[in-house]
Design brief:
mainly beta; Elongation Factor Tu (Ef-tu), domain 3; eight-stranded antiparallel sheet; 10 strands; about 0% helix
Length: about 80
């Protein structure tokens, strides 16, 4: 398995457990496995749903900001990696 950086967390909405992620280095699709890593953050999860501008999307390209439901607290500047088999 390898990891490729796709972006970083811009903000976190704790009331709805959603991370706003800026895709700076790659694209992301629903079903992708991601690893979110930071000073105090370190977990993996599958992308179950994703939104761009409050619209549900299946994939997002580099340069897009997406909202993803996360299972744990994340912090701004945590890095987001896509895990590939």
């Amino acid at each position: 398995m390898s990891e490729e950086k796709v972006g970083k967390v811009m903000s976190f909405y704790s009331n709805i457990n959603v991370a706003a992620i800026e895709l700076t280095d790659g694209s992301l699709s629903v079903g992708d496995k991601i690893h979110i890593k930071g000073a105090t953050t370190d977990f993996e999860q599958t992308v179950d749903s994703m939104q761009v501008e409050h619209k549900v999307v299946q994939e997002a390209e580099e340069g897009t900001s997406v909202g993803i439901k996360v299972k744990d607290k994340v912090r701004p500047s945590d890095e987001v990696f896509k895990i590939t088999e």
